[in-house]
Design a protein that fits this description.
The complex is a heterodimer of chains A (about 525) and B (about 170).
Chain A lengths: L1 H13 L2 H19 L5 H8 L8 H26 L8 H49 L4 H18 L4 H15 L2 E2 L6 E2 L13 H23 L15 H23 L4 H16 L12 H24 L5 H12 L8 H4 L1 H29 L7 H20 L2 H19 L5 H23 L6 H4 L1 H22 L3 H19 L1
Antiparallel strand pairs in A: 1-2
Helix pairs in contact in A: 1-14, 2-4, 2-14, 3-4, 3-8, 3-12, 4-5, 4-11, 4-12, 4-14, 5-9, 5-11, 5-14, 5-20, 6-7, 6-17, 6-19, 7-17, 8-15, 8-16, 9-10, 9-11, 10-11, 12-17, 15-16
Chain B lengths: L3 H23 L14 H27 L1 H6 L19 H21 L1 H16 L4 H22 L12
The chains are: A mainly alpha (about 525), B mainly alpha (about 170).
Chain lengths: ~525, ~170
């Protein structure tokens, strides 16, 4: 009942004209970003954070959140028309979306993707509303021991499940934790790892790291793409709708995809790619026509698209109820929360009900806006695919530089962002995932404080982490997650490999034309 | 570079980095003040974690070599991340990227000294001339338009004045 009142209260906040306008701007920018190959939601949000500095936090967060789910919504467009997923999570949509488009059914494929995303988004937000409140109520009883275990669990999962190597995931987590230790230690007042630089005393700026690691590093990827060749897009022709037969096949897949996606999102670090992959594999396994998968099966578009959008909502459960991000993009949004002086977590539902419920309600409204934006206007919006990458990469660098400088009015931040851009490039070349570093950086401070507080309370007895049933349970879950990851990485999923191979082969073929 | 050799280099690099980090940690003063751990313990655990993960990477690498020595020797690069357009096996000169980083560093050096308007317009024009060739009018319009719009956006709308540099004289 509390959730229902909350949603109604949130709707009253979200329908204020300013909030509606910024939600629309957010979802529109998100859709545009998703159409730009190479820029993901994390980079998009990071680039836009500086623009929101003067805004009211509720408005700013509605816009940033809109960018996130707008990005997830539109990721399918490039996957279907260009054989290139707009974001990593849309990788599975390539498998059936592009073949369907090549058969002359591009409009139907886009419509299926749009409707699946809408339904999953609406169900996902409803689940978020009803799950977050009880979870936050439980989390209110968490002490430093439980918080340490919770963050340890989140970091273990994100380290183990991101990328192709557990060692590299762990490496990125520890690098993030190391970065989080830079600055003055709040408990002792000792400056740590500042190398005598006063700019580092107040810790490494989160925004600088995100912009460097995601936005500036992405530019290098675009440089390689620009020099490598051009992109070929399938034209959208005919009525933007699907047949009754297609809808009958897609409907159950959407609901199953939503369930899989929300559950994946609710587990920190699993991410949209895994959600899409699991839903695709599930559909293929239970389908009466498994032979059609990979050749333009409607379920192969509906299920992964529903899963990625429901995953977005699931990722917010952790962020709002526990103060632990569920994905790379929610980690960036959590950074924005902190920059506005708001600490996400269980207290948020009591201290900032307008913000939490307003944000949740804006997701309902944003989903409706996205459906309206994406269905009739997909042809117009997809024109952005033709913006020359040479111009785009220059604009990204320009926006990133202006944004980073405006944060502290200090050129030092620009050099730091460039350094992180180079690091991001090396991460890509060496196949090291970036999201775990972000998790380590953003959660490192709380992890250390919880660790030290728990040991202070227990007079330095480390068994305190196993005496609390919740903490012990979470640590056990972390061990299970890591074990499961080791096992699963020994047997790579065939469908994901197939999707990646197809993207590579298609590009090769198109460039040989 | 996404090869087993690259993994070994990465692991060694991380071990060196962790060594420097641990050395700096050891030099921090001991200030416990009722805190049984003090400011040094957590970073020490992080440093050890870095070394363990690097060793784990070396073990992973060894395991891969043992399972499939042929493919390990070939070390074919995996398909790039989604959203990329890697090209038809064309070898991109790393000098382009190095040049771009240096050009960006020069831009940042001039950012406050020369001023946002001049530095950004020249920086963007330089990049556009290389990456968007033979479209001089578009490039000039984009460089000047972007710089002006962002200067106005930050100084007037967001209340963050960008450095005026030479134009302040």
């Amino acid at each position: 009942m509390e959730s229902l009142y909350g949603i109604l209260h949130g709707l009253a906040v979200a329908i204020q004209p300013t909030h509606l306008l910024y939600t629309l701007i957010g979802v529109f920018i998100g859709t545009m970003i998703s159409h730009l190959p190479g820029i993901g939601p994390s980079a998009g949000i990071a680039l836009l954070i500086p623009v929101t500095f003067g805004m009211d936090p509720i408005t700013a967060l509605m816009m940033l959140t809109g960018i996130y789910y707008g990005c997830m919504y539109g990721g399918a467009v490039t996957a279907i028309l260009l054989n290139t997923p707009g974001d990593a999570a849309a990788v599975m949509t390539v498998l059936d979306g592009y073949p369907m488009a090549r058969k002359g059914r591009a409009a139907a494929a886009l419509a299926i993707a749009g409707v699946s995303s809408f339904i999953a988004g609406m169900i996902g937000v409803t689940c978020l509303s009803f799950v977050a409140v009880p979870l936050a109520a439980v989390a209110l009883h968490f002490g430093p021991t439980e918080y340490f275990a919770l963050i340890f669990f989140a970091l273990s999962t994100v380290g183990a499940l991101n990328g192709n190597s557990i060692a590299k995931g762990m490496m990125a987590v520890f690098m993030g934790l190391g970065l989080a230790t830079v600055g003055i230690d709040l408990q002792s007042g000792v400056p740590r790892f500042t190398m005598g630089l006063s700019q580092l005393q107040d810790r490494v700026s989160f925004l600088v790291v995100v912009v460097g690691l995601f936005a500036i590093a992405e530019v290098s990827r675009m440089v390689e793409g620009t020099l490598g060749g051009t992109l070929h897009s399938v034209k959208v022709e005919g009525k933007l709708w699907f047949t009754k037969k297609e809808w009958r096949r897609a409907r159950p897949a959407i609901f199953r995809g939503t369930a899989v996606g929300f559950l994946c999102g609710a587990a920190p670090g699993l991410g949209g790619t895994l959600a899409a992959m699991l839903s695709y594999v599930l559909e293929k396994k239970i389908s009466k026509h498994p032979e059609e998968f990979g050749k333009g099966a409607v379920e192969g578009i509906a299920a992964p698209e529903a899963a990625t959008n429901a995953d977005t909502c699931g990722a917010f459960v952790h962020l709002l109820a526990l103060g632990v991000p569920g994905s790379g993009a929610t980690a960036v949004i959590m950074g924005a929360f902190i920059m506005y002086g708001i600490q996400p977590g269980p207290m948020l539902f009591h201290t900032q009900p307008d913000l939490v419920w307003g944000l949740i309600a804006s997701m309902y409204i944003g989903n409706i806006m996205l459906l309206v934006l994406n269905l009739p206007m997909v042809g117009i919006l997809s024109k952005i695919l033709y913006v020359p990458p040479g111009i785009l990469l220059c604009l990204i660098l320009g926006i990133a530089s202006a944004g980073v400088y405006s944060f502290n009015n200090d050129v030092f931040d620009l050099y730091l962002a460039l350094g992180f851009g180079v690091l991001g490039y090396l991460f890509r070349k060496l196949d090291v995932p970036k999201a775990p570093l972000l998790f380590g950086l953003i959660l490192g401070h709380t992890l250390e404080q919880s660790f030290r507080q728990a040991l202070t309370i227990s007079n330095g007895d480390p068994t305190v982490f196993f005496r609390s049933p919740i903490a012990a349970g979470l640590l056990f879950c972390a061990a299970v997650m890591v074990g499961a990851s080791v096992w699963s990485k020994r047997r790579p999923v065939k469908e994901l490999q197939q999707a990646e191979e197809r993207i590579a082969q298609q590009r090769l073929a198109e460039e040989q034309r | 570079m996404k090869s087993l050799r690259g993994d070994a280099q990465l692991a060694i690099g991380v071990i060196v980095l962790a060594g420097v980090y641990l050395y700096m940690d050891m030099r921090l003063p001991e200030m416990r003040l009722g805190d049984p751990l003090g400011p040094k313990a957590f970073p020490a655990l992080v440093g050890i974690g870095l070394i363990v993960s690097a060793l784990l990477l070396l073990i992973e690498r060894r395991h891969k070599v043992r399972i499939d020595p042929l493919s390990a020797a070939k070390a074919a690069p995996t398909p790039d991340e989604p959203g990329t357009n890697p090209g038809n096996g064309v070898k991109h000169s790393p000098l382009v990227l190095v040049g771009m980083v240096m050009w960006t560093a020069l831009y940042y050096f001039c950012f406050a000294r020369v001023g946002y308007l001049i530095a950004t317009a020249v920086f963007l024009l330089g990049l556009l001339t290389y990456f968007n060739r033979k479209r001089h009018k578009t490039n000039i319009a984009v460089a000047l338009g972007f710089t002006l719009v962002f200067d106005l956006l930050f100084s007037l709308v967001l209340g963050v004045p960008m450095p005026a540099g030479l134009l302040s004289i």
